[in-house]
Amino acid sequence: MLRQDSHDAPLFGEDDDHSRLRKSKIRQPLASFFHLFFRTSAILVYLLCDIISSRFIACMVTIILLLSCDFWTVKNVSGRLMVGLRWWNQVDEDGKSHWVFESRKTHSPNRTSSAESRIFWLGLIVCPIFWIIFVFSTIFSFRIKWLAVVILGLVLQWANLYGYVRCKVGGRSNLTSMAKNYLGVQIFKQAMKKTEGP
């Protein structure tokens, strides 16, 4: 099940025709703050953990709590308030899982500002890159005890990134795949006609 209006909430660095109408000031400062606070705090605690505390369990629990708070905040609050996007999973009566991706309509009175959109997408894209680097540095430095933590960080942040990209461009990618399938069938038919000969 896919519900979506894909004409609003620009991706990071993207401009649209309505950008002149949007205010550049931040309309949701609390959501913007917590959108970046939990994810940057988890990264900083991971980087400074050996300096802050010598206790591995305390650092691990702190990082996991920050990552969990970040996942919940981005998925349930900041995505909806800052860019007008939301996604979730629902299970129907038959037990089948359906992913739902939504975006706010363009003519909504509470449109997002371009500054909030940039903050949202910048935080959403840059932080998973740090966790990818942490996974490889953990493997190559043989700090295997941290591997579960950095993989959890990567998975949680990647899940939000994937969900919001699907909200924004999910309908377009479905149309693209349909067009590719149609084109592939047409090329196959032409190839079959040529192999049959005159």
TrEMBL record:
Family membership: Belongs to the TVP23 family.
Keywords: Membrane, Transmembrane, Transmembrane helix
Keyword Transport: no
Keyword Membrane: yes
Gene Ontology, cellular component aspect: Golgi membrane
GO biological process: protein secretion; vesicle-mediated transport
Subcellular location: Membrane
Protein name per the record: Golgi apparatus membrane protein TVP23 homolog
Membrane topology annotation: Multi-pass membrane protein
Species: Seriola lalandi dorsalis
Lineage: Eukaryota, Metazoa, Chordata, Craniata, Vertebrata
Membrane-spanning segments: 30-48, 54-74, 119-140, 146-165
